[in-house]
Amino acid sequence: MAGVTAALVAAEIHQIPTTIVYAGSKPTDCNSFWAQGGIIYKGLENVDSPALLAKDIHQAGAGLCYDPAVQKIATEGSDRVKQLLLDDSLKGAFAHVPFHRNDETGDLCLCLEASHSAPRILYKADHTGRVITEQITMAAARHPLITMKEDTIVTELVMQQGICIGVKILGGETQYASLGVVLASGGLAGIYQHSTNPPGFNALGSSVALATRSGAETKDLEYVQFHPTSLLVPNEARFLLTEALRGEGAKLRNVDGEEFAKNFHPLGELAPRDVVARGVFDEAQRTREVVRLDITHREPEWLDQRFPTIQEHVRKRGLDLAKDWLPITPAAHYTCGGVATDLNGCTSIPGLYAAGEAARTGLHGGNRLASTSLLEGLVFGAAVADFIGNGRAIKKETASLIRNCENNLSVASQNVYSKINSSSAQNSKIQLGRPSDEVGRLLQDLKQTMWDGVGVVRTHSSLSAAIQALQVVRERAEILYRDEPSRETVGLRDASIAGMAVASAALSNPVAQGAHHIVAND
Ligand SMILES: Cc1cc2nc3c(=O)[nH]c(=O)nc-3n(C[C@H](O)[C@H](O)[C@H](O)COP(=O)(O)OP(=O)(O)OC[C@H]3O[C@@H](n4cnc5c(N)ncnc54)[C@H](O)[C@@H]3O)c2cc1C
Question: Which residues have C-beta within 8 Å of that of residue 441, sequence separation ≥ 6?
Fold first, then answer.
């Protein structure tokens, strides 16, 4: 989402030729595709305002948000949604997303989510991310100045004299970028045993790993948001059960069938996300049994219409929203921190930008308000493109550094690079190494370590033990990558670096706030 937005704004508004590289086989292989709830737009004038949205974001962020980032989202967000997702102009260079509309008036429908003071969220049933991602990537794919390269995994940032001038791709190719490299490679919640993030080369911490290997600053990595309700089916990846279920009255029940949410917070199921996540976690620990989510009080037809994707998913597993209490667990969901940027997406490295879940602008502080992240991708993706397009990026130095690199390469007859905007589309299909048992096992160990030691509740000793275990994985991952660079070894190496970064950030912050819940050793 963030990367495609940056590319579209750069290409359409600033006429900058842009290349999007992505690890999946289609641009929709990403977290954005799986967003269920929606994207913040704006509520009706008499009930909502940018100031009210800003207040909600600050409150969710446990008082740790950076106000200028919050103000930017609150004041610019709805215009960006209109420009980029509700484009009904003749040219239609951007996306026109079929959000849910009132049958009679044709007006956009707005829904309310937990911790929002007003209905202000655009949605499409329970698959909003799918319709947004499909429409915006179609817009990028048809743009003449945008090149899209699938199955293309970035393994390194190319640095010259402290400036980022391109990226190295798995398989050996180098992509140079004379105006800048934008890291929009998502978060790291996929490195946890229980995660709502889709499997594949996704959310394995590439953004943090690439940035830290090149010395870019990261911030707030200890604030990993855990979602309270993901479907717990043994031997399967977790699947998100959206907050909207609880918004529609779903209850949390323990093994004895008791509603227990009011025991941990007066707002019960609608308490802030991190509070509910800890409530579910603690109840499962206390009873040593699985906690369940119950929305069986709603009509079957209504459930089919309101939550079609979830209903289909659970039915395939022999369950039914209308009849069954669903087994759940909290799961890592979102990375509030990331590669530190200013409001233009500039990182601490000249030539390197970051946007979306990869970036830490300070918007989320200690925790994220529901449905802010798709909007963040739009606003900050566009901000990077505007910054570069308005001529504020470092052009001259980069261009001459790239020329030097290209000359050196051609002298050595190593024609292994391609230039951004090159019309000769090089074959970027990567060589997929055979996943070795060891790589798979190490990734599994790493995820378990993150869950056990750097999870919903942390202690000083759980974090220290996790760091020790992660260090072992990290050293081995470097060797495995060096011996056989492959999709799997790149993922393991990035995950181990990102995991260490999160655990270290958590250990160095003794204050329990927001999603970082650190308690005294027991
Ligand atoms: C199940 C679920 C439900 C959600 N629901 C909502 C919601 O309702 N509303 C909301 O606002 N947010 C929601 N979120 C959060 C939101 O979806 C994400 O925060 C947001 O989509 C992140 O967008 P992004 O563009 O930063 O990253 P992504 O959409 O994750 O895209 C990152 C891209 O980078 C690629 N990549 C990663 N590493 C590399 C590499 N080394 N080389 C090349 N490519 C790489 C990936 O393949 C991917 O294509 C949800 C998240 C999940 C998982």
Answer: none
